[in-house]
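Technical note accompanying the year-one report. For the benefit of new consortium partners, we illustrate the data format agreed upon in the data management plan: each record pairs a sequence with a structure-token string. No post-processing was applied to the example shown here.
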Amino acid sequence: MQSLNSEVDRITERIIARSADLRASYLKKIDKATREGRARSRLSCGNLAHAMATCSAGDKQLMAEEKVPNLAIVTSYNDMLSAHHPYETYPKLIKAVAARFGATAQVAGGVPAMCDGVTQGQAGMELSLFSRDLIAMATAVSLSHNAFDGTLCLGVCDKIVPGLLIGALSFGHLPTVFLPAGPMTTGQGNSEKAKVRQLYAEGKVGRKELLASESTSYHGAGTCTFYGTANSNQMLMEIMGLHLPGSSFVPPNTELRDHLTASATETLIKQLNGNKEPISLAEIIDERAIVNGIVGLMATGGSTNHAIHLVAIARAAGVFIDWQDMAELSSSVPLLCRIYPNGEADINHFHAAGGMGYLMLQLAQSGYLHQNVNTILGKGLEYYFEEPVLENNRFSVIMKTGSGTGVSEQMPATFEEKQLTWKGISDRSLDDSVLRPASEPFSKTGGLKLLTGNLGRAVIKVSAVKEEHQIIEAPAVVFDSQNEFQQSFDKGELEKDLVAVIRFQGPRMNGMPELHKLTPLLGVLQDKGFKVAIVTDGRMSGASGKVPAAIHLVPEASDGGLIAKVKNGDLIRVDAKQGTVELLIATTELDKREAKTLALKENTFGTGREIFKVFRQSVTGAEQGASIL
């Protein structure tokens, strides 16, 4: 086993020391729940009767005997989201696998799953970040019936996976497996899509042409194929040991995808039926797993949204991390991937080039990953240096219904004609323009940086920003909403060097919506040769990239941040190389200024925003995970 990189080791030890009390308190709660034993045995007869009222006679008998595991399926299925639509068929397959092994499974509950692609630039985006904590609550409610021995989490996209994991960690004594759904097949190239968006922003094409372009890009079931938050989620779940090896980016509605779903279910059941104590979720998500997740994020140029989500996930597991940890790891971890928006390839191309198996092998062999960690497959990461394949099964038999249990669900008729196995991953990338060895990285440092200065603390994604754009010093143009920026752009008022300051976009003000609507507009200005950057206490999309963006600025404007004192024409310097964000105004002048205040008006109602008032009142800052939990 390769010795651990000294910086990764140092930062991990710092996190462990800092988290000692918080982690001990969490594990004490988990230990208490574990020692209480199988939850179903503590249900009264009336409780149990309600829990199994709609089950088959065979399943009722199994559940009443309290000897076999009952699996909780927590699903984010809806048929509007392309990424979550495939989950419609998962419960039937999971129940059939459970029946085959003499176990039971139930859909314990559903969680909301909104689509940022639909709400970008719309009022509903102000609920997006808050939906993560709502999903965590819904996951806990789903598991609160205490009728389950293990958990299967079905989720893919932006806030859904972090929410499911945060909620599941409150039941961290249960062994837990995450089931991906996979990306949609490749459509129109992401760069071409971005070009059409910019043409629309310039008025050179109409809405009809724009919609045709978007529909060619987003055309079927599965995640969007760029490397935004959804696919960053899948990378995280695999590198932290909650997915089966190589399963994150297998497309939906394929034989391999179905076999992986079945195998993941089987893995959980065999743990619960085994002679050893099953590996609980709390044992998997510890300080080392969180560090592995950060390393993966930096090595792939993943979504900036995880500068918020990973903090919240870690807290739920009793681990305290901050942006400084991320920044220092980014300074040590090489960038091994070029996936849009920090490259031309999509996630399918990444998977074909070697995918997660190759990535994790390279990081492990170079000492960037903790290998002696727990995963859903046991101790150690060596299982994850392989990829799944289907082979013809010489002993094929057609699977019948659940071995006399009375379960009506069947496996697909041809399911056992193929056998799922794993083979070692190649030690060479199949396309080094997309995925490179750690010895020949695209960059010696990772994709994310911490910016500090008199304006506060912010993060910036540098993996997609060309070197000539990484230092911008220009006059501020100040807006209190992205719509104001749009109006000024449409009037032709922004044809100049500028730092766009978009404030009052933090979680305490309006829920911290993504400002992805600005991306094509800023791209137009940059392509015209102007020096442009953005400074905001809001978020940008996980797909944003080429324009330097100092985002998640804390303290936010509504919380006393200096950003509330910025005026049009003030000189601002955003320096991604040195890691600074500075308002270049004398302190004496700033002391004389009064911070602007902005009262919530239209943001307090419509599209459900009035219901989330309590979230805005109690949410923490972005660096603390922007959480109410």
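Partners are asked to follow this layout when depositing records. Confidence is low (pLDDT under 50) at residues 396-408.
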